[in-house]
């Protein structure tokens, strides 16, 4: 059985948590020491930690934020928490309400795969992680604004919406795919996300919270 931790655990870590994106804009930032000074360091999806990147992105990682999508590589179970910013139930199956969001390709594909062998195998792979899931109503609130949000925007929205906490100083490299190099660990520059929309939403959060 998958262990499911309630999202109420998040306030204990969110206010001293560095959210570190995978953006290529992190290269040359020399933020590694600052990032590693946080009590909690959250990294996303297929992040890569190597000595050559330490000066820019740091080496610490005790929280993994992941979409659990099929292209996400599994990692050793060494995290304090695995945060999943999507409304997935305790069996790692999508909420029945997801099918209302026809524009969300991730949700549509996941629903289509529900019950398949591949999905069942994926569930089994995550069964030992300490996982916290995004509440369905919070997911709905961002999907109404932006139908295919990135994992980074989802995580920032979740913390703000549920705990009324937003601190851009804790966010590292969130250019939302506007940088020429989208990920620091490879040179590919293709993204399915709407960069302009994501930047606009992020800037609105900064204005709304006075964090400008």
SSE sequence, one letter per element: EHEHEHEEHHEHHEH
Question: What's the number of extended β-strand segments?
Answer: 7
Summed up, the helix count is 8
Measured distance between first and last alpha carbons: 44 Å
Q: What about the largest sheet?
A: 7 strands, parallel
- Side-by-side strand order of the widest sheet: 1-6-5-4-3-2-7
Beta-strand share of residues: 5-15%
What gyration radius follows from the Cα positions, in whole Å? 16 Å
Could you say which overall geometry the principal axes of the C-alpha atoms support?
Answer: globular
Give the helix level as a range of percent. Answer: 25-40%
- Uncertain stretches of 5 or more adjacent residues: 94-116
The residue-averaged pLDDT reads: 78
Q: How many separate structural domains?
A: 1
Query: Oligomeric status of the shown chains?
Result: single chain
Can you put this structure into words, describing what you see?
- The structure is a single chain.
- The chain has helices at residues 11-14, 32-36, 54-57, 105-113, 117-125, 136-143, 151-163, 195-209; strands at 4-5, 17-20, 40-44, 63-65, 81-84, 131-133, 171-172.
- The protein has a 7-stranded parallel sheet with strand order 1-6-5-4-3-2-7, with helices on one face.
- The chain is built from 8 helices and 7 strands; from the N terminus they run βαβαβαββααβααβα.
- Helix content is 32%, strand content 11%.
- The chain is of the alpha/beta class and 212 residues long.
- The longest helix is centred in the C-terminal third of the chain and has 15 residues, at 195-209.
- Strand 2 (17-20), helix 2 and strand 3 (40-44) form a beta-alpha-beta unit.
- The chain has one domain (4-209).
């Amino acid at each position: 059985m998958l262990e499911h931790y309630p999202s109420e655990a998040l306030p204990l870590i969110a206010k001293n948590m560095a959210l570190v994106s995978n953006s290529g804009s992190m290269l040359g930032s020399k933020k590694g020491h600052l990032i590693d000074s946080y009590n909690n360091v959250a990294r996303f999806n297929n992040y890569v930690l190597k000595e050559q990147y330490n000066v820019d992105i740091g080496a610490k990682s005790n929280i993994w934020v992941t979409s659990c999508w099929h292209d996400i590589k599994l990692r050793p179970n060494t995290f304090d928490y695995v945060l999943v910013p999507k409304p997935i139930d305790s069996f790692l199956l999508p909420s029945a309400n997801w099918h209302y969001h026809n524009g969300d390709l991730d949700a549509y594909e996941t629903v289509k795969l529900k019950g398949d062998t591949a999905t069942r195998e994926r569930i089994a792979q995550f069964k030992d992680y300490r996982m916290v899931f995004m509440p369905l109503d919070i997911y709905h609130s961002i999907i109404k604004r932006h139908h295919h949000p990135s994992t980074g925007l989802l995580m920032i929205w979740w913390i703000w919406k549920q705990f009324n906490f937003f601190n851009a100083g804790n966010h590292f490299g969130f250019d939302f795919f506007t940088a020429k190099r989208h990920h620091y660990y490879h040179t590919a520059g293709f993204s399915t996300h709407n960069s302009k929309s994501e930047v606009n939403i992020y800037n609105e959060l900064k204005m709304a919270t006075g964090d400008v």
